[in-house]
Every structure is written in structure tokens, then in C-alpha cells.
């Protein structure tokens, strides 16, 4: 006898299925759920995109399984194949605090007060606001460590101004980072922002956590990250208060002269401070109470005694006209002081790399921009980091603080002139263009979508495809910035090539949120410069793919239609078939199975128009096999398993004959799922075992885990 199935259990299954769509196994579960819902409702039900839509779908399932025992057995069988276990979080921790921290007792007491406030229905949110160099971030982290015992479930931290895959976080990408810290794997994180908000708030609802949102830009950016959970304290760190943000204000101003002197003493020692007694007032005045400026001044006190009045510019720093430096900003003043003491080659590299906000660059990029060898660039980057003009990242790369980069950029235009700055920026973009195209071709050599690598690119630049994909992933933040820079500098061909080189990363590694800004730029440039061309069709197809992965289905459908329009106008038959195939795959995700099947039929008819010897002819058999597999998926959703199996078996025969291990295993998985749904577990078992063997060799861990769950169903007596 079947146990009653609650709404909560059904919602948990739907939530787990929707969250897992980042993997191929997750896509299967999502499409399978759609087929079951269609069968239960007796009509087409569009896939839910919001929590309230999901509740309506759960109600359809609930009512069906309680009125039809056969549907109840079918749903139970499916639900057992889905991982719905709760999140087991570790104990996330804040970044390391600074070694030397001075007082801020008044601010610390304000934070203590907000943390100790009795629950009264209001979110616990404090806003630490102060200038860029006033140590607001350091204060938040230092207080968080001091108050660690108040948050036994952990301390979350996200730098909203410095995303790992771009210059700033969106709310959606910040939620992804927070959910990762809470213990979710990438394939468990919901694709849509609304679902991520719901997941985040559910997970933290009964936990005692500290959440630090650093370098916030606006109230709109952080609103989705706030929670009313009574035991979660959120510290928002920003330069200024935000209108509309209901938060407890904690202003962070300059250090007093007394505290500034104490900080310097901790860093350089009492003996050095005694020797600097006469000029200390001038030092403190120039630093303006900024902890950053004081730290930047400390090494010069140690190396050469007290830092008195500012020195005149060195010859290689002589101004040549341009923007006026705002000496009232302590951070920029400190940057100017450090810059004056640089040797000429380090000063030049500092200026040139600061021309664009590269998120995290390495010695190879610096060498290309400055026209020097990589070893020399690495040594100079170390010099700049020692002078606090650059920061080390966790990945061993370098970046500027925003105000320091502004100083470097202004100085570059004074020193190098517009022509010199333009040439340096062009060298940077050309470096990332060459890098991306070379890696993309190595990652996906058979794809007609990937641009050709430069003629002089080494054939053995990457030992294997995975290495090339990994390089694209590491450089993605810089590639997005390169696209933006090329668009700003009026280089449309470079924009289009850079975006097309991102295709292997989209296809094999995801990163769709990070890719989205670049692809939006690419399609806009294509529409403006080369409308109705292959390039425009390719870019619209890439954007459609990423939007679909993010469950922005309406916009994805419009972009797929635009891709088909441009490919048709360009007379690119292979591209047209692919664009229509993209639209069919999108319809599968939306649970619009008949529309999906019709799209795959239409794509196949387009392929019929490619004759022997014509462009794309060599790719047609493989394209047909993929369409056969997709047809099988659509037919399964329509409740026609026998026809589905026939189509998938045709695809399997092609992939076996051509030695495509990965697609062979995927087709075997599809057939196994059809057989299990029909209760033929004995027939499915050897197919599952073969697919496990193949995919284990391919290191496709997510697929293997899904297959192992299918295998468990084969021996489950409740399947009978």
C-alpha cells in the first residue's frame, strides 16, 4: 500500500529537479517531470519559472496521485530517482582579517547593539558606509571574527564589486556564490534568480549566520540578498548610504590622529615612530586618516625614515597635461606617493595596465601590454604589489583597487597621451583575442561555430580539450572586459570573434551568467554591423542557448527566432537547421513537447536541403543523429515511449558506428529511462552498466551518479 504523498514532498521533488538543470541528468529529470505532469493534467502544462507557478504544478500532481493509484506509483518511482535530501552546510568563514587593526570602538559598539537586538520582525541589517580607503571592509571582517561565537552556523561573505567572473556581481550571481558557500553544488543551484532567492531564504531561515555584502553599489543590488530570518545578521559595506534601504547606519570616517599614529606604530614599531616625531603631523595630514594610506606610507618610513612633505615628481613622471588629480582622496594621494618612488619600467606598467578594469590579470597579459618579456612582467607586478598599488587575488593574479586604478588611468593619459593609451589598450585586447580563439579551437576543433585559430598558433598549445576549456574559464572575466573594450573602441570584428570563441565554454562548462553581458554586446554589434549574416545568426544562437540555460525562456525563444532569421537570410543552411534545433531544445525545457518535436522535424527538413559536396554536408549525418535523439526525448514527454525508443536507437546506432563514446552513453541512458518507465528493468540494466563504464572513462561524474540511481531502480521491488 502506498503512503500518502504530501504537497511538501511533491514540492521538494520539483524543487530538486528544477535546481538540478545545470547537468544533463538534471535536464532529463526536468523533462521527465514535464511528461508526467502532462499525463496527469491531460493537457499541456507550461514549465514553472516562479515559486508560485511551481506550487500550482505541485497541486496538479497532488490531486492526480490521490485519485489514481497508477499515477501515484509512477510518481513515487520518479521521485525515488531524484535527490531531495536537505543541504548539509559546513561552517563557512569570512576572509582573513588584517594583521594590524586599530580601535573603531564606536563603530564596533554600534554593531554589537544591532547584533544583540531582540527579534521584532525587522531584518537585521547594518550599513557600514565610508570612503573607499577608510577601512569599512576591514571593519566588517574584523568585527565578524570578534563576534564569531554569535554565529555558530557560519559567516558568509561576498564581494559585490568583484565577481569571480566579471567586474561586479549581479544579485543572481551573488546568490550563486552564497549558495555555494552554504554547501550546494553547481548542479543543485536553481538557474533562475527567483528560485535562487527562494532557496537561499529557505536554507538560512533557521540558522545563525553572519552575511557580509562588501562593496555594495545600490539598494536594488542587495535587496534580493536580504532575509528576515531572525538569527541572520547582514552587514552591508558601501561608500555611502542608500535611499530606500532600511538598515541600521554605522558611519566609518577617518581615523583620528591618535588612532592613525597607533596604527603606524603597530606596523613600523616605536623606534621608527620616535625618529619621525618631527614630521609625523605632515604624514598624518597627507594620509587623511585613511588606513590604506597609512599602510602604504609605512614601508617608506621603514626604508628611508619619515615621510615628510610630498616630493616633486621624478623626471619619468613629469605631467604632460590631462585630468587634474584629486589630491583630496587619501587613497589616490597614497597611490601618487607610491607611484613617485617607482622605477621607470614599473611606473610604465602600472600606468598601462590601469587603462581598463581588467578583473584579474597575469604576467602574460602584462607582458603583452607593456611589450616586455613575461619574466620581467612578473617581477614588476611583484614590485607593484609590494607598494600596495596592486592586490594579489586568490588565484595568484593581480588587480587594482578602483580608486588606485583611476589614478593609474589618469596618470597614463598624462604620460602616454591618447595615442599611447590607445595602442596599449589595443595590445591588451589583441592578447585576449588570440588567447581565446586558440583555446576555443583546441577545445572544440570540429565545431563550425568556433572561429579559426591564428595561422601561427602552436598546434600543441593545449595537451587536451579539457585544458583549453579550463583556460577559457580562468580568463572569462578578462574576456568579457575585452568584449566591452573592443565595442567601446569601435572594433566590431573583434567583438564578434571574441564572442564566438566563447561557444566551447558555454557548451561544456556553463558560466552562463558571466557570459551573458558579453553575448548581449555581441548580438547588438552584429545587428548593427552585419545584420542578416552568419555571424549575426551565430551570435543570436549563442545568446539563445545561454538565456535558455538561465530559464529566461521568452527572451531565449526570441533570440533563437532571430538566429533562424539571420541564417536563412544569409543562405547558411547548416546554421538555419541548428537555430531551429535550438528552438526545439528550448521547447523541451518549457514542457512544450509537441512544439519541440515539430521543431526537430523542421530542422531535419532543412538538412535535407544540403546536397552532397555542399557546405556542411559532412556534418549532416551527425546532425541527423542528434535530432533523432531529441525527437525521442520529445516523444517520451508526449507519452509515446515505443516511438521514442525507435528514434533513440537510430541515434545510438550512428554514435556507436562513429566511435562517439559520450553521445553513445547519452543515448544508452535515454533508452534505459524509456525501458524503466515501461517496467522493463531487466532489459535496461545492461544498457545502464555499459553507459556507466563509458562515462566513468569520460570523467562525467554527474552523469554517472544519475545512472547509478537508475541502476538502483532496476533492483527496487517497488518498480514492479
Characterise the protein shown here:
The protein has helices at 7-19, 24-41, 51-65, 69-80, 105-115, 136-146, 171-181, 193-204, 219-222, 257-268, 270-275, 280-287, 291-304, 330-340, 344-353, 363-370, 374-386, 402-443, 465-488, 492-500, 503-509, 512-529, 534-549, 553-570, 573-589, 593-607, 620-637, 641-657, 661-677, 681-697, 701-714, and strands at 124-129, 155-159, 209-214, 232-238, 248-251, 391-392, 398-399. By secondary structure, the chain is mainly alpha-helical. Helix 1 crosses helix 2, helix 16 packs across helix 18 and helix 22 runs antiparallel to helix 23. The longest helix has 42 residues, at 402-443. InterPro entries: P-loop_NTPase (IPR027417), TPR-like_helical_dom_sf (IPR011990).
Which labels suit this protein?
two-stranded antiparallel ribbon; 31 helices; 720 residues; five-stranded parallel sheet; mainly alpha; 7 strands; 4% strand; globular
Task: List strands and helices in order, with pairings.
Layout: H1 7-19, H2 24-41, H3 51-65, H4 69-80, H5 105-115, E1 124-129, H6 136-146, E2 155-159, H7 171-181, H8 193-204, E3 209-214, H9 219-222, E4 232-238, E5 248-251, H10 257-268, H11 270-275, H12 280-287, H13 291-304, H14 330-340, H15 344-353, H16 363-370, H17 374-386, E6 391-392, E7 398-399, H18 402-443, H19 465-488, H20 492-500, H21 503-509, H22 512-529, H23 534-549, H24 553-570, H25 573-589, H26 593-607, H27 620-637, H28 641-657, H29 661-677, H30 681-697, H31 701-714
Parallel strand pairs: 1-4, 1-5, 2-3, 3-4
Antiparallel strand pairs: 6-7
Helix pairs in contact: 1-2, 1-3, 2-4, 7-8, 10-13, 12-13, 13-14, 14-18, 15-17, 15-18, 16-17, 16-18, 18-19, 18-20, 19-20, 19-22, 20-22, 22-23, 23-24, 23-25, 24-25, 25-26, 25-27, 26-27, 27-28, 28-29, 29-30, 29-31, 30-31
Amino acid at each position: 500500500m502506498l503512503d500518502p504523498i504530501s504537497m511538501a514532498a511533491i514540492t521538494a521533488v520539483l524543487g530538486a529537479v528544477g535546481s538540478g538543470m545545470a547537468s544533463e541528468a538534471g535536464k532529463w529529470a526536468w523533462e521527465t517531470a514535464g511528461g508526467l505532469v502532462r499525463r496527469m493534467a491531460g493537457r499541456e502544462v507550461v514549465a514553472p519559472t516562479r515559486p508560485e507557478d511551481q506550487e500550482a504544478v505541485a497541486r496538479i500532481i497532488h490531486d492526480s496521485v490521490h485519485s489514481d493509484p497508477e499515477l501515484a506509483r509512477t510518481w513515487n518511482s520518479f521521485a525515488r530517482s531524484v535527490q531531495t535530501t536537505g543541504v548539509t552546510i559546513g561552517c563557512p568563514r569570512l576572509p582573513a582579517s588584517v594583521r594590524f587593526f586599530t580601535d573603531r570602538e564606536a563603530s564596533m559598539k554600534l554593531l554589537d547593539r544591532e547584533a544583540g537586538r531582540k527579534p521584532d520582525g525587522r531584518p537585521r541589517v547594518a550599513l557600514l558606509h565610508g570612503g573607499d580607503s577608510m577601512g569599512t571592509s576591514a571593519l566588517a571582517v574584523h568585527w565578524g571574527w570578534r563576534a564569531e561565537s554569535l554565529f555558530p552556523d557560519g559567516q558568509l561573505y561576498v564581494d559585490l564589486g568583484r565577481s569571480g567572473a566579471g567586474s561586479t556581481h549581479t544579485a543572481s550571481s551573488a546568490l550563486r556564490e552564497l549558495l555555494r558557500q552554504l554547501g550546494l553544488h553547481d548542479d543543485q543551484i536553481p538557474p533562475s534568480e527567483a528560485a535562487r532567492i527562494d532557496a537561499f531564504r529557505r536554507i538560512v531561515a533557521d540558522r545563525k549566520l553572519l552575511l557580509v555584502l562588501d562593496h555594495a553599489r545600490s539598494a536594488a543590488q542587495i535587496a534580493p540578498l536580504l532575509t528576515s530570518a531572525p538569527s541572520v545578521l547582514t552587514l552591508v559595506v558601501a561608500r555611502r548610504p542608500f535611499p530606500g534601504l532600511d538598515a541600521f547606519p554605522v558611519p566609518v570616517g577617518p581615523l583620528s590622529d591618535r588612532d592613525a599614529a597607533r596604527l603606524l606604530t603597530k606596523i613600523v614599531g616605536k623606534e621608527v615612530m620616535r625618529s619621525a616625531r618631527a614630521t609625523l603631523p605632515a604624514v598624518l595630514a597627507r594620509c587623511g586618516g585613511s588606513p590604506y594610506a597609512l599602510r602604504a606610507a609605512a614601508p617608506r618610513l621603514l626604508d628611508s625614515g619619515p615621510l615628510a612633505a610630498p616630493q616633486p615628481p621624478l623626471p619619468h613622471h613629469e605631467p604632460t597635461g590631462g585630468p587634474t588629480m584629486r589630491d583630496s582622496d587619501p587613497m589616490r594621494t597614497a597611490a601618487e606617493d607610491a607611484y613617485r618612488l617607482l622605477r621607470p619600467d614599473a611606473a610604465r606598467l602600472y600606468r598601462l595596465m590601469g587603462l581598463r578594469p581588467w578583473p584579474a590579470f597575469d604576467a602574460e597579459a602584462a607582458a603583452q601590454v607593456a611589450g616586455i618579456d613575461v619574466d620581467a612582467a612578473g617581477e614588476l607586478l611583484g614590485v607593484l604589489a609590494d607598494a600596495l598599488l596592486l592586490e594579489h587575488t586568490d588565484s595568484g593574479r593581480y588587480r587594482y583597487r578602483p580608486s588606485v586604478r583611476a589614478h593609474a588611468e589618469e596618470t597614463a593619459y598624462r604620460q602616454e597621451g591618447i595615442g599611447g593609451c590607445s595602442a596599449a589598450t589595443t595590445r591588451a585586447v589583441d592578447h585576449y583575442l588570440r588567447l581565446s580563439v586558440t583555446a576555443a579551437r583546441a577545445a572544440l576543433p570540429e565545431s563550425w561555430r568556433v572561429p579559426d585559430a591564428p595561422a601561427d598558433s602552436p598546434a600543441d598549445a593545449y595537451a587536451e580539450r579539457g585544458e583549453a576549456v579550463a583556460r577559457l574559464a580562468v580568463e572569462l572575466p578578462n574576456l568579457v572586459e575585452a568584449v566591452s573594450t573592443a565595442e567601446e573602441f569601435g572594433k566590431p570584428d573583434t567583438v564578434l570573434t571574441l564572442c564566438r570563441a566563447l561557444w566551447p565554454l558555454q557548451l561544456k562548462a556553463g558560466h552562463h551568467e558571466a557570459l551573458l553581458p558579453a553575448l548581449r554586446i555581441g548580438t547588438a554589434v552584429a545587428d548593427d554591423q552585419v545584420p542578416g549574416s552568419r555571424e549575426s545568426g551565430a551570435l543570436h544562437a549563442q545568446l539563445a542557448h545561454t538565456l535558455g540555460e538561465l530559464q529566461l525562456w521568452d527572451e531565449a525563444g526570441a533570440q533563437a527566432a532571430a538566429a533562424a532569421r539571420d541564417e536563412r537570410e544569409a543562405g547558411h543552411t547548416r546554421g538555419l537547421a541548428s537555430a531551429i534545433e535550438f528552438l526545439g531544445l528550448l521547447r523541451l525545457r518549457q514542457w512544450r513537447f509537441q512544439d519541440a518535436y515539430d521543431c526537430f522535424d523542421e530542422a531535419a527538413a532543412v538538412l535535407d536541403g544540403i546536397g552532397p559536396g555542399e557546405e556542411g554536408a559532412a556534418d549532416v549525418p551527425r546532425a541527423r543523429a542528434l535530432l533523432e535523439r531529441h525527437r525521442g526525448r520529445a516523444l517520451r514527454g508526449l507519452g509515446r515511449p515505443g516511438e521514442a525508443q525507435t528514434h533513440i536507437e537510430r541515434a545510438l546506432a550512428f554514435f556507436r558506428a562513429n566511435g562517439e563514446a559520450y553521445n553513445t552513453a547519452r543515448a544508452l541512458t535515454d533508452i534505459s529511462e524509456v525501458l524503466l518507465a515501461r517496467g522493463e528493468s531487466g532489459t535496461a540494466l545492461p544498457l545502464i552498466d555499459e553507459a556507466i563504464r563509458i562515462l566513468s572513462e569520460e570523467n562525467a561524474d554527474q552523469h554517472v551518479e544519475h545512472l547509478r540511481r537508475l541502476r538502483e531502480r532496476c533492483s527496487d521491488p517497488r518498480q514492479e
